[in-house]
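Is zinc ion placement plausible here? Inputs below.
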Amino acid sequence: MRKTYQIHCEYDGVKVSLTGSPRVKGYCHCEDCRDLLNVPFHSVTAWNKEQIKIVEGEALLSEHQHPEPEMKRIFCSNCGETLYNTNAMDWRVVSQLLLRKCNDGVLPDELHSDSHFFYARRIIDINDTLPKHD
Ligand SMILES: [Zn+2]
Ligand SMILES: [Zn+2]
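Reply from A.M.:
I modeled the complex. Tokens:
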């Protein structure tokens, strides 16, 4: 059975569903993610655009276009919460933190990171046992 996950913005105005399994789940250390979101690395689940559906509040969504042409941050214009961002492959990248917050504070087991990406570009070292890809 295909699983469905729900995410929403802080004040519940925008609701988004994610169906199936993410293409990728991991920690991204690339400079674009850092720059787009002001984080040292990004804990991501990445989905095909067909897997994601705006269930409620589509009119509230705004886009921030990153200087890198393919990357956009999609956020709620009411409360400012980022729902997801897009990348050069046109994937929909949803933060594991948001998934955790919207799932009663628990990230579903199957969405946990299984590796690090662009590790060579990191700004902090991570001392864990996950495989690290450059
Ligand atoms: Zn990245
Ligand atoms: Zn909102």
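Short version: The pocket of zinc ion (ligand 2) is lined by residues 9-11, 13-14, 76, 78-79, 81 (CB under 6 Å).
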